[in-house]
Amino acid sequence: MSDPLDSPLVPPALREALRLAPDNLPLLLHVAEAVLRSGGLAEAEALCKRALALDPRHAGAKLGLAAAFFQQGKHGPALVIVEDMVKGEAPPPRALLLHARLALHAGEPRLAARQYARAREADASLTDRELEKQLGEFLPARPSPQLPPKASAPAPVAPTEPETPSFDFGGSEDDDESEKRERLPAGDLPGETRGAAEPEKPTTTFADVGGMDTVKEEVRMKIILPLQQPDLFKAYGKKIGGGILMYGPPGCGKTFLARATAGEVSAGFLAVGISDVLDMWIGQSEKNLHGIFEQARSHKPCVLFFDEVDALGANRTDMLKSGGRQIINQFLSELDGVASSNEGVLILAATNAPWHLDPAFRRPGRFDRILFVPPPDQGARAAILRLLLKGKPASEIDFEALAKKSDGFSGADLKAVIDVAVEAKLRDAMKAGALQAITTRDLLDAIKRQKPTVSDWFQTARNHALYANQSGLYDDILAYMKISK
Prior knowledge:
- The chain is mainly alpha-helical and 485 residues long.
- It folds into three domains: 4-140, Serine Threonine Protein Phosphatase 5, Tetratricopeptide repeat (Alpha Horseshoe); 206-372, P-loop containing nucleotide triphosphate hydrolases (Rossmann fold, 3-Layer(aba) Sandwich), CATH 3.40.50; 378-449, Helicase, Ruva Protein, domain 3 (Orthogonal Bundle), CATH 1.10.8.
- Helices cover 48% and strands 6% of the residues.
- Helix 5 packs across helix 15 and helix 6 runs antiparallel to helix 7.
- The longest helix is centred in the last third of the chain and has 22 residues, at 411-432.
- The two termini are 40 Å apart.
- 39% of the residues are buried.
């Protein structure tokens, strides 16, 4: 959007003051609050993001951004911010109130009631009769006030009933203290943040990837061309970076393609697994994940690849009360680049089970390209076999005949075929005392011994594509299996 200060909702005096002191954080938040109260939701969002760029940990700026998201109906991003704010021992009462509203919207009235009660107990001015009516029986009754002896009862005061939520933009002086008081399990203190290894520089390119032409083209348009022709993409307002989610049966080359993408543009490559992130200590997993993103941002351009991403981003509806939700919230926050820009960070992820991934990851701006990576077709199988046999002793090989006989094989299955044939030839070579060339017959025999491993995956995927495909996400699976809706 254009400069939010140009909005007519910004009072002229405040606009001029902020232009003279653009890094004045209290003034910036004061303007954001004024704009938000006047209905300038998008402008308030932009101003709060500016504030977070100056101080990424400022509680008031984070709460203001969450408020702007909430009032725009962007409940997912608002939840990411608020859940991070309320996990400490003394969370801001207004963050608890907003968490209650978000939980109620998500169909969790018990959680909403619990958070509202905490907010009301911490700050009685946050009492909201309309919200209490919506929470109904889930809200615990407040105890009757006990008057001191020999004291007359005070005059009743009508509670405040705001028509719309009001949010405090002030920061908390106790932020650092709550950080120090973070609860840890018994034992030694956690060590240094993991996941900050130096990016590698792959030499693999698309020329080393057999088939996958459609997927390559999508990756080329989304990631490679913006780096090779930045001026052209800048003219159209397209940023360098973004995310692609690849899904499909195991062993079909998703990881190999990610590494080749980095090699194609001479970018750094960081491969992230579950063990690089998960930690037994409370809050340490989120710090590990943040450290990985920061490492990628400091080595632009960099391809950040998350393998089996569903293990880190499982659907939050399945784990509302689990600590794993905090990791998901941190992941979403890093993808959004709320506190740090992801310009030049190319994010690829792979999963065999996209139906387990939280829907928030599929929002535009996160993984906004979702690509089905099927088993290789006949031409791709021939190309893969050529690549796998490169440098090995082989006679004239009929790759087309091998490709026809290996229908339904994944790239990993074809590698297993080569391994079986090589092992047989090694035995022959040791007996003969000389190299023995691999023949087409050797490979055909190996294909007979090796069965395709993707059939079980397609049985599961078929059920999701037929009965849980309201958004059309799995239409490519149906097309591959030649099933009509």
